[in-house]
Design a protein that fits this description.
Elements lengths: L1 H15 L13 E6 L4 E9 L3 E6 L3 E6 L3 E7 L4 H4 L24 E7 L3 E7 L4 E7 L10 E5 L2 E7 L3 E13 L6 E12 L3 E12 L2 E2 L4 E9 L4 E12 L2 E13 L4 E9 L8 E11 L1
Antiparallel strand pairs: 1-2, 1-5, 2-3, 3-4, 6-7, 6-19, 7-8, 8-9, 8-10, 9-11, 10-11, 11-12, 12-13, 13-14, 13-15, 15-16, 16-17, 17-18, 18-19
Length: 290
């Protein structure tokens, strides 16, 4: 059962991933450019310099866009042109259900995420390459129960913009009211392959609790693929091995974009318990800024 579940989840995203599709170079002739004011332009690339990009569009004719005004630029196949002209930019492309990928929030862009009412996090792009978030589960509301709080800084490095991005960061927290040794967290590095709308991420991290760091790495594999104007498939998976035993937590789900919010929903499946257990996930995200 374990290998089968992992194989199914991975297969869905590998088969739909643009980098693995073996598309001929001459088949990609159009480009999608997203600018800092939220507009999107689709057209044929005429010229690109360090200062500007000239694009031949269907409705506006030839336009010139300053490089400093471009948020993202990615090739698209001709059959998707009419769809992409009406698709919203993905406002939460820097993460999956919870785990980060190599993309970053733009400067001034942010979101508030609430999962199952109790888990709360706010994240904001300080620059185009650095973001930070703060989160908590407010257990103090229940008779002063010790409450975890955390920060999530992340640096993003576009090795090849909209194709290969690297992220370095961590989750660093403390349980308020938990006494000594109540710190916890993880330091990680991730590599993301693909565009904001379709990508796969592989990551490696080491966790800690108190003053003790784990000597067992946590491996993450995540991915997303756009399946419609406002819909995405998501997966987020964790693997750890100790003394020949592999523990895994895999997931499959979706993201729906509404006008002012988005919803993530899916199932997380622990596959080292010896029994089939499905943990539901439901979260609401409200973007702001940008």
């Amino acid at each position: 059962m374990r290998p089968f579940l992992i194989l199914v989840v991975t297969h869905v995203f590998l088969c739909s991933h643009p980098l693995l599709a073996q598309v001929p170079d001459d088949f990609v002739s159009l480009w999608l450019i997203t600018t800092t004011d939220g507009n999107e332009y689709v057209g044929e690339l005429i010229e690109q310099t360090d200062l500007e990009v000239r694009l031949l569009t269907k409705n506006l004719g030839e336009i010139t866009i300053r490089t400093e005004d471009i948020v993202s630029m990615e090739p698209v196949v001709p059959e998707k042109m009419l769809q992409l002209q009406n698709w919203r930019r993905h406002p939460h492309a820097s993460r999956y259900f919870f785990s980060p990928n190599g993309y970053n929030l733009s400067e001034g862009e942010g979101y508030y995420q609430n999962t199952w009412v109790l888990l709360n996090q706010v994240s904001v792009g300080v620059t185009d390459y650095f973001s930070i978030g703060a989160g908590t589960i407010p257990l103090f509301l229940f008779a002063g129960t010790p409450t975890p709080v955390w920060l999530t800084p992340k640096f993003s490095i576009p090795v090849s913009p909209d194709r290969v991005n690297i992220g370095i960061g961590g989750l660093f927290g403390r349980v308020i009211g938990g006494g000594e040794g109540s710190s916890f967290g993880i330091a990680y590095g991730v590599s993301t392959f693909g565009s904001r709308d379709k990508n796969i991420t592989v990551g490696l991290g080491y966790g800690f609790a108190g003053d003790e760091w784990s000597d067992i790495p946590l491996i993450t594999v995540g991915g997303t693929t756009r399946i419609g104007k406002r819909a995405f498939l998501l997966t987020e998976n964790y693997f750890a091995s100790s003394e020949g035993e592999v523990a895994a937590l895999i997931s499959i789900g979706a993201r729906s974009l509404a006008k002012t919010v988005s919803f993530d929903y899916g199932l997380f499946l622990p596959v080292a318990t010896g029994a089939f257990v499905a943990i539901p996930w439901l979260s609401l995200t409200v973007p702001f800024g940008g």
